[in-house]
Each structure stands twice: as C-alpha cells, then as structure tokens.
Amino acid sequence: MAKTYHIITIGCAMNQSDSERLASRLNELGWCRVSDCHRADLVVLVTCGVRQSAEDRIYGLINQIKKANPKTAIAITGCLVYRQDIKTKLQDKVIYWFSINELGRLEQILPCYNPDNIKPIKDYLEIMPDYKSRVSTFVPIGNGCNNFCSYCVVPYARGREIYRPAQDIIVEVQQLLNKGYQEITIIAQNVNSYKDELNGLDFTGLLEKLDSLGDYWLRFATSHPKDMSDRLINFLGQSHNLIHHLHLPVQSGSNKILKAMNRNYTAEYYRTLINKVRQQWPDIILTTDIIVGFPGETDKDFADTIQLVKDLKFDQVYVARYSPRPGTLAAKMADDVPAQVKKKREQQLNQMVIAGALKNRQAQIGQRVMVLLEEQRGDCYFGHTDHGLQILVTTPEKKSYTLGLRYFAQITSARSFSLAGQLL
Ligand code: SAH
Ligand code: SF4
Question: What confidence score (pLDDT) does residue 2 get?
C-alpha cells in the first residue's frame, strides 16, 4: 500500500519552489501527501543553512516529530545535506539524505510504489511542480552561485550556477498564465546573472520575452548589484508587467567590510545604481539585506551602514546578525563582534527602518493601487499591491469581488510595512 508523506520547508523562495518539485516527484513515486506531519510515514525537511538560526530549527523539529510518532521516517534535503558534521549528529534520527539535484533519481533513494510510471530526468528543474498556489507562484530560472561572498554557504550547498534554457522558462510561464495565474516571480540565487548562451540571451533578454506573454505581474529575486546593467535598469522603466519592487541586497555600507565580504562593489557604486533605478521607476519599493557584526566591523563601519540606510530610504531591510558558516572563507576569520553588539546594531537598524518605512507608506495615502486578492475575512480581503506591499481592503456595499483576481483600490491608511484601503 502507498505510504504518506509531509514536507516541511525552511528558508528562502528557492526552497519553497524546490518543495513543489519534490512533492510532484514523490507523487509520481506513488507516495500520498498528508497535511498533518504526525500522520505521515515520511517527513521530508527541506533545510536552510544560510544562518545558524535556520540550522538550529531542524534539531527541535526532528525531536518533536519523533516524540509524536517514533515510527515516522525522516529525510533531509536542501542546504544542510553537504554538512558531514550534521549527518553524524543526526545519524540515529534521519534515514534518508539527498541533495535537491538528486530529485531526478529519487526512485533509487526512497521506496517507490509506482516503478512502471517513472520517467528518467536529467535535471531536477525539468520536473513539473505541484504548485501550492493557484494564483501566484515562483518559477526558478537557475540554481547555484559563483560569487563566493566570504560569509555565504550557498555556493557550497547548491554548487555552481546553472541556468535553464529560456524556451523551457517561457513554456512554464505561458502554461501558468493559461491556467489563470496572476503573478509569477522568477527566482535564482543570483537571478540577474542569468544567461542562455545557446540563444545569446541575457537576463534582460529573458525579461523582455516574459514581459510580452500576457497581462500579469512579473517579479524577480534575488538580484546582485554587480549584475544590475544599464540595459536592465533601462528595461525596468519600459516593461508592462514588472511590479515596481526591487530587492537588492547591499549587505554593508562600509567599503572595508564589502571588500572583506567579497561583494565586488563599493557603497558609492550601490548608491549610483539606486539613483539610476529611481530615475526609471520613481515610485519603486526598495528592499535590501544587511548583515551586522561581520568580522572586523567597527563602530565606524556600522556608522557607514546607518548613513547609507538613512540616505537611500529603504522600504524594508532584512537585517541578519552574522553567524560563521562552516567551510566559508569568513569562518576562518575571528568572529570578533560580541553577540551583544550584534544585537544592538540589529535593533538600531530595525528601529530606523520602521520609522523611515512609515513615512514612505504615509506618503501613499490617497493613491490608487492595484491589489491581488489572496484571502477573505468577513467583508475584508487581504492581498498585495502592484508594488508588492501587503494590504487589507474593505469593500463598498453591493459589489462582489473574486479571490485570486486583481482590482483597483484607494489607500486610506498606512503602517510601516502594510497598507489599508478600500476597493473601488
Ligand atoms: N543571493 C543573495 C542572498 C542569499 S542568502 C545575495 O546575493 O545577497 C540571503 C541572505 O542571508 C543574505 O543576503 C545575507 O544577508 C544573509 N546571510 C547569508 N549568510 C549569512 C551569514 N553567514 N550570517 C548572517 N547572515 C547571512
Ligand atoms: Fe551567497 Fe553571495 Fe551567492 Fe548571494 S551572491 S548566494 S550572498 S555567495
């Protein structure tokens, strides 16, 4: 009899998207999905190793699962698979370990209840996902990273960059649009270094093709500042479908720290980029990632970061306290910023961002925006705007709206990271 499985995903959009391909492959192998992890014969953890905190979560989770149902088999995939130390630590609790690149031969790793139905697959990105949402979804355009930022585990965990042929991506997006999807986010660790060498297409070339496929919202993440070419920036202003949000991790405002991080740009270069982007998209929502407490970060270095955040008026900053990742270059440096100082710097940045973002949002009151309706609660709907901002909207009397479609609304009030409004 077929057995049941449950997937727990930790971390980034790429992991969420990988989980959709994993689910589809498990279904092909004859496994049945269940929503309650305590009723599953197999729980697969799609792990993240980018920060210590994400790594720590899996130990607690595994203990909980085993306590509730000691017979559950546990499998681990994702970022932590390459970590021998974790394999040793968990050898009594975790039976299966496989990297995401091995999804194409999963039938050789896990029991298969459907052996006659299995088609061979070369690259896991060829697998047609079991999409979680019927309205908005991620489409990976590649995997891996060549940048080796000194703090980052991704190039070790996911390997070098590989990109899907443009035609495969276009077909997947077109199929989604035919099914009525309203929003597609194309993703990769370093999305704007995309290349389809056979067809001579760069990231902007791919965006141009995707932009012409229909009337929908197109997003992309995560971009690297070094690959924000003028050609790409010029296209931002011309595109029909791109939503006006750019997530562009800066990591630090100090040139000394950026150099030690191996980011390959300066704070001045990043500022110039943002000026150019704002000329194309004056109403852009700009978000970023910053690491505080990288080895050697002094008060002066942190003051440079504060200044950059003040000047560029980000709409959101995802602040992470530096944690050494085994195998990376930075892990060989002394982790010399005390935990208390990291925490204080994180709090200081967060407070600044909350106040700055509130001003940005309040300036939007009265504006008309388009909203994708995602969830209904009584007479209200939750959704997000064509700038990627969360919004709660009320409805005028005697009008009906359909979940999963886009409507115009007027903004009536604002918080730092969300809006409220009325549907028109
Ligand atoms: N490809 C993206 C980010 C991938 S990792 C980029 O180029 O920026 C996501 C975020 O996790 C990073 O932007 C960084 O802010 C954070 N991060 C990565 N390694 C970290 C570490 N060792 N300690 C703390 N934060 C880290
Ligand atoms: Fe990590 Fe740098 Fe690659 Fe981003 S660009 S995934 S931070 S190595």
Answer: 59
